[in-house]
Amino acid sequence: MLAKENLYGMIDVIDPNDFDIIYQILKRFALSKDNPNEETVRAMLESDRIAHDRTVSGFTSINALREALDAE
Q1: Are the C-beta atoms of residues 31 and 25 closer than 8 Å to each other?
Q2: Spatial CB neighbours of 61, under 8 Å, sequence gap ≥ 6
Q3: Domain residues for 63?
Q4: CA–CA gap between residue 22 and residue 16 (Å, rounded)
Q5: How many domains does one find in the chain?
Q6: What's the pLDDT score for residue 33?
Q7: How far apart are CA 7 and CA 22, in angstroms?
Q8: How high is the pLDDT of residue 31?
Q9: What is the per-residue pLDDT across 8-58, written as a single tens digit (0 to 9) for each?
Q10: What is the CA 64 to chain-centroid distance, rounded?
Q11: What is the pLDDT of residue 24?
Q12: 14-38 b/e (C-beta count within 10 Å ≥ 16 → b)
């Protein structure tokens, strides 16, 4: 609930003239209360694990990725 409480705190300091644009931004992300299915949750957890695993190779450019794929 900390994130929700932080969000409510942020709303209190937003200039009322900015409410419409903030609403439009949130609407664009199509926020909903729908929960992701089990497969999606597993994929999200795996991507988070990979993103923080220093032993997993990453690429900073498409050329570096292509070179690695060509080397296989």
Answers
A1: no
A2: none
A3: 2-71
A4: 10
A5: 1
A6: 67
A7: 12
A8: 60
A9: 888 888 888 888 888 888 777 766 667 778 898 899 899 989 888 989 888
A10: 24
A11: 83
A12: eeeeeeeeeeeeeeeeeeeeeeeee
Tokens coding 21 = 């644009």
Tokens representing 10 are: 């942020």
Mean per-residue pLDDT, 1-12: 81
- Write the single-letter amino acid at 8: Y
Q: What is the residue type of 5?
A: E
Residue keyed to tokens 């644009």: 21
Task: Give the single-character DSSP code of 36.
Answer: P
Residue with token string 């990453």: 58
Tokens of 62: 């498409």
Distance CA 15, CA 32 (A): 24
Determine the Cα–Cα distance for residues 42 and 38; give it in Å rounded to an integer.
6
Structure tokens at 18: 């900015």
Residue 24 contacts by C-beta under 8 Å, 6 or more apart in sequence? none
